[in-house]
Amino acid sequence: MKIMQRVFYSMAAITAVTIAQPVQSIEEGLYWGGGSRYITVSRRVTKEFGTRVCYSGFSQNGSMIASLSLKIPREQTGIDYEVYTLDGVENNLAVQQYAFKRDQITFGKLVGRFVSGGLVYKREGDTQAKRSPELQECLNSNKQYFKQISSGRDRR
Questions:
Q1: Containing structural domain, residue 52
Q2: Are 41 and 52 contacting, i.e. CB atoms less than 8 angstroms apart?
Q3: Is 21 a member of any domain?
Q4: Range scoring the smallest mean pLDDT among 2-6, 81-85, 131-135, 137-141
Q5: For 51-55, which contacts have Cβ atoms below 8 Å and span 24 or more sequence positions?
Q6: Considering the domain boundaries, does residue 20 fall inside one?
Q7: In this structure, how many other beta carbons lie within 10 angstroms of the beta carbon of residue 86?
Q8: If you placed Cys at 33, which of 14, 37, 45, 89 could pair as Cys (CB 3.0 to 4.6 Å)?
Q9: What is the pLDDT of residue 84?
């Protein structure tokens, strides 16, 4: 009986430690959405300003760089997913990541509490060596950041 009690108390302690750990935010990385569509998610953490997360999306049409704001934290979803919105974008674009699928994100419009009809992007690699000057500018800023760069294909 004492062995069973010890096992039970040990399991309870492990569970308590697991629950008490802080929930991680969106995974940094380079994500591929098929064809020429890529998303980079980067993070900077400082004591003074806390965590700063930035998005860079690029395709044959150009690129968009924006700071991300946590809109729906995991604690409000039963630890299943979290949603970040792109700062400065008028059409409610968002990135969603499930806790059990840390290697992919969904990008699309935020409808209610989910990204609806979005594309799924799968993580391809690390972002440390591949940051554009604009993405680094976003990370270094402490204010809302948004920049759109056209590919020039539609110019005549």
A1: 29-150
A2: no
A3: no
A4: 2-6
A5: 51/25, 52/139, 52/141, 52/142, 53/25, 53/26, 53/84, 54/135, 54/138, 54/139, 54/145, 55/84, 55/86, 55/95
A6: no
A7: 26
A8: 37
A9: 94
Q: Give the pLDDT of residue 155.
A: 42
| Residue 74 and residue 80 in contact, taking contact as beta carbons nearer than 8 Å | yes
Provide the H-helix boundaries in the chain. Answer: 2-20, 133-140
Q: What's residue 46's pLDDT?
A: 87
Run of H or E including 30: strand 29-32
Whether 135 is in a domain gets the answer yes
* Long-range contacts of residues 89-96, Cβ cutoff 8 Å, at least 24 apart: 89/64, 89/146, 94/118, 95/26, 95/39, 95/41, 95/55, 95/68
Residue 2: per-residue pLDDT: 53
Both structure tokens of 61: 């049409």
H helices present in 27-146, as ranges? 133-140
Tally of structural domains, the chain: 1
List the beta bridge partners of residue 50.
Answer: 46
